[in-house]
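Bumping with the actual sequence this time:
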Amino acid sequence: MEHRKAVIFDMDGVIVDSEPHHKQAFYDTIREIGYEGLGGLRFEDYVGRSDYELWVDFVAKNQPPQTMEELLARKRQRIIEVMREVQPIFEGLPDLVAKLAEQCPLAIASGSEHVVIEAVLALKGLRRFFSVVVSSADVQRGKPAPDIFLRAAEMLGVEPRCCWVIEDSKPGVLAALAAGMKVVAITNTHPAHELREATRVVRNYEEIERLLLAA
């Protein structure tokens, strides 16, 4: 594709089919500390955003005795256990990553914490393909702000306009566009009409391969 010099991947919902597991990990953690459901919150409102944002709202609404650090740690440990056990890497993703890595540098820009990102990238030998990994902990504002994608481009040494982003969430699409990047949205999490602001909307990884390797 024209001007493609780097590709930046979101992780949850793009690399790994993790959204259902994140939801269950939150439910498990919240139940362990004595609350039902998500303590009055809707998980769908936090898809594409960081764990920290959900916990901030949970603490504000419920005032649990646990510290923010303890809540983050409990949920973090649970999701890492699930990722290692289930290994829900999307079919077709490893081949796409390997082919793209032969032509341009790749980065991860994820709302997950670094320890979770590294646990996921350890699956299927994916870590070797990504020269840059950026977490929401590395920037001041999470998606839909553009910070995480701008940071990834800076670390890659590539201008934002020369980056393609692969996303699955509405906040992620908005963040990539705000960063001045092109974004291909895959319908792993949301239907196509909800992602229509993306540069392109696709249904599978074969479509992404044709789009980004067309040149």
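The tokens above came from a reply further down the thread. The chain has two domains: 6-17+88-212, 19-86.
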